[in-house]
## 1
Amino acid sequence: MNETEENFGSIYFAVLGAVALAFGVAELIATVPGEASWGIMEMSGIFLPWRAIILLSVGFFYLSSVKNFAEVHQLAKAVMASIMIWIVAGIAIWARIAGSIPGEETWFNSLEGFLASYAPPYCPEMFLLPFSLVIVYYVLKEKEEK
Amino acid sequence: MQVKEEVVKVPLSVDERWDLIEKISKQTVEFGARKHTLKDAIAELTVKPLTGIPVAIAVIYGFWAFFCEFAGTLFTDGFMVRLFDEHWLPWLQSVFPGKETWLYFIFVGDPAADNCFEAFGMLTSGLFVIFGVVLWAVLAFYLIFAILEDVGYLPRLAVLVDTVLHKIGLHGYAIVPTFLSLGCNVPGVTATRPLETRKQRFMMMTLLAIFVPCGAQIGIMQDLVPEMMGWIFLTLAIGYLGFGFVLNKIVPGKSPEIIMDVPPYQMPTLKNIMSKLWIRTSGFLLVAVPFVLLGCLIVGLMYLTGAMDWLAAVFGPLLTVWFGVPSETVAPLIAGFLRKDLAVGMLGGLMEQGIMTTFQVFTSVILLCIYFPCLATFALMIKEENWKEILGSLASLVAMVFVYGGLIHLVGIMLGVA
C-alpha cells in the first residue's frame, strides 16, 4: 500500500474508532435505564451491556491500529475490529430477518408486515457496518502485495 | 529387506534418534526468517488476553444471539408453537377416543390443556419438546459449533482460557468438551478421552454432568425464562469454577500439561459443515426421541398410579424447606432423570398454573441442571469411569446439590426474594 493509502487508512479508521468508542459509551450509559433512542438510532435489548463492551473494544482496536497502519499487525487490529462489527450488525440483521418471516395471526407475514420489520430504528452497529467495509479494500491490497 | 532387518536388530538410542532427526531435517527443511502474514497477525490477536477476550465476547455473543433468533424467534415461536398449540393439540384432543381413559392421559395428556407444555402426553408435550423446541435449538448450536471448529477458533479459545482453567486443575482443552456439552452432554463426555490422567477425566466428566446444560435444555429454558438466562449461566459458571477448584484440591492425582495443535485459520467448507451438522443432529435425535417419549410415559404412569403424589409428599418437605421450591417440583425432577429438556418443559406447565414464583422457577431450573445427569449421559459415564469413580461422581453430585441448592435458597432469603 502506498503512502497516500496508508495515511487515508490511518485518518479514516481513527475517525471510525472515535465514533465507535462514542457509540460504545452511549450504549454503556443506555444500560442504566435499559434503553435509549436518538433519531433513528435505538439502543435496547437484553444483550445491551455486552454490545457496549464489544463496541468499546472495537473503538480501541481501531484507534490502536492507526499508527503505522500499513504494518501487518496494525492492520490486523483494524480487520479484527471490523469483524466484530460484522458479527454484531450481522446478528441484528438476522434478528430482523427471523422476526419478519412468521406472521402475527397467519403462518407467514404479509408483504407490508415483512417490509415494516426492516424499518428504523436501527442499532449503532448497523450504522457502523457500511463504514467498516472499507477494510476489505486494505485486506485485498495487502493480499495483492504479498 | 536386508536394511529393514538391520534396523530391527540394532535399535537406536533416544540420542541417536534425535541426531538422525536433525540430519534428516537439515537435508529436507529450509530454515529462514518468515514474514508474518495478515492471517498470522489475526491469529495472534485472538490468543493474547488483552485482545483475545473482547474477540471471544463478540464470538460468544454472536453464537448466543444467533441461537436465540434461529431457534426461538424463527422456528419455535414463529411456527412450532402455533403448529402444536393451535392445530396439533386441538386435532388430537378431538380425534383421540376415550377422554376419561388412562390411554388418553398417557398419549394426549390433560384433556383441559390448551397448550403442549401443560398437556403432558407422549404425543403432545413429548413431540412438542423434541420437534417444536429441541430440534431447532440443537440444529442452531451445532451449526455455529461446526463453523467455529472448522474456522479454527476453538483451539484459540482453549489457549485463551488455559490460565483460568489451570486454576481448577484443567487444561485449556477442557473448553472443547464443555462447548460440546452445551450441545449434548453425551459427545461432551466422550470428548474428555484426550485428557491424560484419570483425575482430569473424572473432574471434567463430573463438572460437565453437573454444571453444563445441554442445547435441548437451553432451548427450553430460553423459551420459558429468557429474562433469567444471564443469571442462570452466571450461577452455573460460578459453580463450575468453584466446584472445580474444590475437586482439584480433594481429588488425588496429577494434572499434567498437554500439547495442543493450533491450526491456522481457514475458510470452512459447506460440505464439511453440512455433514457434521447431519451426523451430530441425527445422533442427538436418536438419543433424545426415545428418552423423551419414555419420560412422558413414566411420568404419566406415575401420576395415574398415585406414585407421584406419594413422592411429592415424601420429598415435599425437603424441597420446600431446604431448596425453597414447591413440592410439585418432584415430577420435573423425576422426569429429569430421563431428559432435562422434558423436565424444564414440565416446569413451564407449573409456571403457567401459577404455582411458582420467579425465584422458585430460577432455583428449580438450576436444581434441574445440577442434580443428576440425564440417563444417556449417566450410562456413558458408567462406561467411561470405573465404579469407584462413578461412586465418587455421585457423591460429588449429592454434596453439590445440597450445598449449592441450599446456598441459592439462602441468597434468595437474604435478598428477600425467596
## 2
Amino acid sequence: MEDFQNNKLSLDELPQLNVLDFERLPGRYFRLRLWTWALVLFLSSFILFGGILWANVKEDVLISEIPAVLWGLMTAWYLFISLWGISEFNGFALRGYAMRERDLSFRSGYFFHAYTTVPFNRLQHSEISQGPLARAVKLCTLKIYTAGSSGANLSISGMDPIDAQRIRDYIDEHGSE
Amino acid sequence: MPNGFEITSMSMEVNDDFKAAFSDPRRQHFLGVIRYFTKYLVLLVRSFFPILAGLAISDGLRQYAEVIGWGIFTLVVVAAIVEYWRFRFHVENRTIIIQKGLLEQETITIPFDRIQALHLEQAPWQRFVGLTGLKIDTAGTSGSEVDLQALKIDEANVLRDGIMSAREESVTSSSENEPESKLLVHLSLNALLKVGVTQDHFRNGFLAFGAVIALYEPLKSWIDVWLSAVPEMVWSVLSWTWFLFIPLGVFLFLIVSFTISIVGAFLKYFNLRAALHAQEISLRAGLLRRFEYRIPLTKIQILEWKSNLLRRSLHIETLRIFQASAQESDASGKGLAISVPGISQKSSSKLVTAVFHDQTYDVKAEQIQPDSYLFYRLLITRILSGSVLSFAFASGWGQLFMIGLVLLWAFWSSRKIFENHWLRVTPDLCQLHSGWLRKKRTLFSFYQLQRVVFYQNAVMRKRGVAHITFATSAGNRTFKYLNETDASRLYDWSLAQIEQSDLEWM
C-alpha cells in the first residue's frame, strides 16, 4: 500500500467537478418533457372545467354550490402544475451529464437539485433502455449500476442513443479492470 | 476431483477431512426432517387457519376432525421426508452445489468466491440433538441464500473452515493459518447486566406492544370467546372508571418494557464473545438460540457506534458492522449488519486498526462543522413545535413561563445537537458524528465508496448549503447541511480517492 500516495495531493490540485463540464441533453428531450407537461395541464383542465360545466348544464348545479373543498383542491392542483412547469422550464438547463476520464456524473432538478458521480472502477454493469415513445423520438435511458442497492444508481433519461452507446463503449474499454 | 482445490498452505488435515466429507452428494443429518416437518406444519396451519377455525366451530365437520388431523399429519410427514431426501449437497471445484426441491428439482451452485459469510445458528432443538444450522450468505443479486438445517457440529465446522480458508487463499496469498486472535468483547454476567440495564427500554416496550397487537389478529376468536365470558357488570363499571387505570397501565408498561428488554438481552447476548482474527471477525452468543457469525475483514464497509447517556457513563457502546452486499440494504440494514453490544473504547480502536489497517486514522485529521443554517433550522422547528405545546397547555403567567421554558429548551438542545454534528476526515477515512444524548459515529474509508451524491434544494442553494451522500455497498450515509464549498471539496476528494485506488473494495 506504499504506492498509494494520497497524501501528496493537495486540495487545490484535486480535479474538481466543474459546472461547465456538464453537457446538456438534446433539445428534443426538452420538447418532449414540455409536451408531457402541457398534455397533463390540458387533460386535467379539460376534465375539471368540463366536469363543472357538465354539472352546471345537465344537473343544474350552480357555480356557487360547488363546495369550497373542491375549489381548494383545484387551486392546489394548479399550483402544483405551475411549480412543475417552472421546474421544467428552468430545470432543463441544469440537467445534464459530465463524462470524465474516470467517472460519469449526472445532475438534475430545479427545486431539488442533486448531482451524482459514479467512478468507472466501481461499476457493476450498465444498461441502455428505450421505450416505444423514446424510440419514436430517438431517445434512450442509460442506466449505471453499482453495488449496494437494487435500483440503478445513475439513470440518465433523454440521451441520444449514439452518445449513450459511445459512453457505454468507453466504459467497457476503460471500466473496471 | 478437479483441481483448483489444491491449496498448499491450507492445513492438511482440514483439507483432507473437508474433501473426504463433502466431495460426494450427501444428505443432511436425518433429524433435519424435524425442521422440515415443523416448517410444513406451520405453513399449513398458517395458510388454512380460517378453515381450521371453522372446523373447531362447525359440528358437522368436527366428527371428521380426527381423520382430517391424521390426513394433514401424514401429508406433512411425507412432505418433510421427501424434502429431506431430495436435499443433497456437495463441494466440487471450489463451488458448493445444492440439489433440492419438493416437487421440482432445483440445483443451486454457489462459488466460494461469492460467499460473503457463513453463519452457524443453533436453535434450542438443534442443540438438544447436537446439530447445528449453517447459513450461507451470498453476494448474489438473486435471493439465493441457502440454509443447511441439520449438520453435526464438527461437520459444520469442517465445512465452514474448509470453505473459508479455501476462499481466503484465493483472495490473499498470505498463508499463516490460525494466528493469534484477539478478544474484543466478552460479556460476562456482570457486563451483560450492564448492557441489559442500559438498553432503550421504551423502544423495546413499544415493540412488544406491537407484537401483542399483531398476535391479536390470529388469536382473535379465542380472545373474543374469553372476553365474552366476562360478566356485563364488569364492563359497565369499567366504562366509568377506565381512566383510573391509566397510571397503573403506564406503570405496568414500564415494568414490562424493562423486563422484556432485560430478558431479551440475556437471551440474545448471553456469553457473547467477539474476537478479532487475522482475516475475520467472529461473534458468537445466545442462550436458547445460539449463533456464530464470521465476517471477513475485507468485506467490512462501515463501522458504526451508537451509545446513549447511560452506556457512555459505563464506557461501553454498541458497534454495528456492515458488510458489503450486492443487494439492496434497507434502512435497517438487517441481515447485513451484526451488532456487538458492550464494546469498549480500547477494543474499538483495535478493530479499527485491523479493518482499516494501514490507512491513517489519527494523522492530519480535519474536522468539518456543518453550516450555521443547521442550527437555525433546528431552532425554528423546535420553537414552532414547542410553541404549539405552550399555547395548548397554559394561559396568562403560566403561558409566559411555558414560552420561556420552550425557548430555553429550544436554544439549548439545538446548540447541543449542532455542536455534536460534525465530520472528521483524514486522507483515507471519513467519520461522521451526530446526536447529543444518543450519539452515533460512523466510520468508513473513502476508497470503498461506490458513488457520491451532492444534494441541494432551492432554499439550501440560496444559503450555500448542501447535503452529501456517501454510498457504500453496505448502505448510504448522508451528512447534512454542510457548507457548499466543504461539500464540493469532500465530493472531489472522495472521487479522487476512489479513482486512484486499485485496492479491492471487497
